[in-house]
Design a protein that fits this description.
393 residues, alpha/beta, Purple Acid Phosphatase, chain A, domain 2, 6-stranded mixed sheet, 14 helices, 47% helix
Length: 393
């Protein structure tokens, strides 16, 4: 009940903001079009149809999965990206108008031909946004491989002096990141021949049904490594229902760690935290990290998986050697990266916090718009070096 109430409040707030932003864009677009001739009528119909597709598609997905729901979700997801950039353009133009109202600076060729200027700006804005979305979508289909060396040589790992790991986060499997795209990701990961694979949350998008319908679990099983595939819950697993998400992932070969520590190969620890949004959607708190780490032998390397990269200094203070996270998408769409940079001490990439190594992946998939602008989806290859134990016990 609490989960449903939290989701209802969240959905109401988001829907209200969504409607207001669309209305603002709509009114400015309408002003740019000439009166009469039916242009404004067509614009009104097309605009609100596009604005309604994402919400309608998500609702339909919960009632009946099929071609229609797919079309609506895809169209609406692209509209989310278009909405952001139309909003930024409209705000920019309104700021120019405000400045001109205070200190007139528009040349006469603009002021005397304002009707035509507005129409040119309207057409130019549509073209620019279309090009951005096209480029951004192509970008999402071609993740880059990032390679990083991590030195934990101050810790011994029995007979292991190195660990070849692959990190994936924020795949968001579902309608938009389907089996075809995921197959390409899995093939690239397996070609790297990792010793171990880490999944830092949000493997699934909100709804599990599109994953089941496409039988993505078959491809998920092809993700394997000698030392195992370890994952943690992200906020989207909780939004869609943590019980079913957990069961599906475990049932398809992923060793999910929920507020626990696992000793791997009797050489190092993998610690997994449940997502911090667990309380919001289930009403239950996750364990404090200090409690999760009880019983861990800190003579061995300790690798922490925590989906959201908050409070990195706390993990460092408790003796964690390496934290791996995701969640941020590094904003996914420029300039939202400035927001994530303000929210997190590390929005993307490698950093060191009080001696602890940390890597925050911007993800290999997308949420909302199947578009990335200003950053690349990534598969992360980690070359982790350990020390050599002199007195093996």
């Amino acid at each position: 009940m609490q989960r449903k109430m939290a989701f209802l409040i969240f959905f109401t707030i988001v829907l209200t903001v969504y409607a207001l932003v669309n209305y603002y864009i709509y009114t400015r677009g309408l002003q740019a079009l000439p009166a009469g001739g039916g242009t404004r009528t067509w614009f009104t119909g097309v605009f609100w149809l596009l604005a309604a597709t994402y919400v309608a598609g998500r609702i339909l997905e919960n009632l009946y999965l099929g071609t229609m729901s797919d079309v609506l979700v895809w169209t609406g997801s692209f509209w989310l990206g278009a909405m952001l950039y139309f909003f930024l353009l409209v705000v920019f133009f309104d700021l120019l108008r405000l400045i001109h109202h205070i200190i007139p600076y528009f040349p006469s060729i603009v002021t005397e031909n304002m009707v035509q200027v507005r129409q040119y700006l309207f057409a130019g804005s549509v073209l620019l946004v279309a090009l951005l979305l096209t480029f951004g979508h192509i970008n999402t289909r071609h993740p880059v491989l990032r390679e990083l060396d991590i030195d934990i040589s101050h810790k011994d790992a029995r007979d292991m002096d190195k660990l070849h790991a692959v990190l994936l986060s924020d795949i968001h499997l579902g309608t938009l990141i389907g089996n075809g795209q995921f197959r390409k990701i899995v093939d690239r990961v397996m070609a790297l021949e990792p010793d171990i694979i880490f999944l830092a949350g949000d493997m699934l998008d909100e709804d599990l049904e599109p994953v089941i319908r496409q039988n993505i679990g078959t491809t998920l099983k092809d993700l394997h490594a000698p030392l195992g595939v370890y994952g943690v819950m992200g906020n989207h697993e909780h939004i869609g229902g943590s019980k079913d998400a957990y069961a599906y992932l475990v049932g398809h070969g992923i060793q999910m760690i929920r507020d626990d520590a696992v000793k791997v190969n009797d050489a190092f620890y993998v610690v997994g935290r449940d997502d911090r949004d667990k309380r919001r959607f289930s009403g239950r708190e996750r364990k404090p990290l200090a409690d999760v780490l009880e019983g861990v032998d800190f003579r061995y390397p300790v690798i922490l998986l925590d989906h959201q990269p908050f409070y990195l200094e706390k993990a460092a203070a408790l003796g964690v050697d390496l934290q791996l996270s995701g969640h941020t998408h590094h904003g996914q769409l420029w300039p939202l990266n400035y927001i994530t940079q303000a929210m997190y001490s590390i929005s993307h990439g490698y950093g060191k916090v009080d001696g602890m190594h940390a890597y925050v992946s911007n993800g290999v998939g997308t949420w909302g718009p199947p578009v990335r602008i200003g950053n690349r989806p990534e598969i992360v290859q980690l070359n982790i070096r350990f020390g050599e134990r002199q007195d093996k016990d």
